[in-house]
Automatic annotation (TrEMBL):
One GO term (biological process): propionate catabolic process, 2-methylcitrate cycle
Organism: Citrobacter koseri
GO MF annotations, alphabetized: metal ion binding; methylisocitrate lyase activity
Phylogenetic lineage: Bacteria, Pseudomonadati, Pseudomonadota, Gammaproteobacteria, Enterobacterales
Gene that this sequence comes from: prpB_1
Keywords from the named record: Lyase, Metal-binding
Protein name in the entry: 2-methylisocitrate lyase
Gene3D superfamilies, alphabetized: Phosphoenolpyruvate-binding domains (3.20.20.60)
Length: 158
């Protein structure tokens, strides 16, 4: 609890959210994890991250026990099942974290690229299937950010 209190005491921005994570469920059980969550909230935590939840009903119990938002950690190969966003919403989960999904997909894509290079010796026939970096610039409206930062203007196809 001392770390939560120290973070609350040191907070200078009222919009800065202090999220407390508990891994107590796997070691001490649900009731102990909920008790710890209550103590974190009493210490000033704005949000809770209960780790290794295995059933939606557990999220509901956390949400019923504390008056702060709950985060779900949804990662492939983790203890928590791959609940849908609708399922999480129904269990009163306020935010979902997908920490490795895109990374794992990128790893698979990289593996495919290197297999093509190994087999064909070039990416000539395949590069049109790769992501277009200029599309990302347009899609995420990064041009104003680049201009403000003083970066050179990239060539962007219309």
């Amino acid at each position: 609890m001392d770390r939560i209190r120290a973070a609350v005491d040191a907070r200078t921005d009222p919009d800065f959210v202090i999220m407390a994570r508990t891994d107590a469920l796997a070691v001490e059980g649900l009731e102990a994890a909920i008790d710890r969550a209550r103590a974190y909230v009493e210490a000033g935590a704005d949000m809770l991250f209960p780790e290794a939840i295995t059933e939606l009903s557990m999220y509901r119990q956390f949400a019923d026990a504390v008056p702060v938002p709950i985060l779900a950690n949804i990662t492939e190969f983790g203890a928590t099942p791959l609940f849908t966003t609708d399922e999480l919403r129904s269990a009163n989960v306020a935010m979902a974290l997908y920490p490795l999904s895109a990374f794992r997909a990128m790893n698979r894509a990289a593996e495919r690229v290197y297999n093509v290079l190994r087999q064909e010796g070039t990416q000539k026939k395949r590069y049109r299937h790769h992501a277009d970096p200029q599309r990302a610039v347009r899609k995420h409206q990064l041009l104003p950010v680049r201009r403000e930062a003083g970066c050179a203007e990239p060539e962007v196809d219309p």
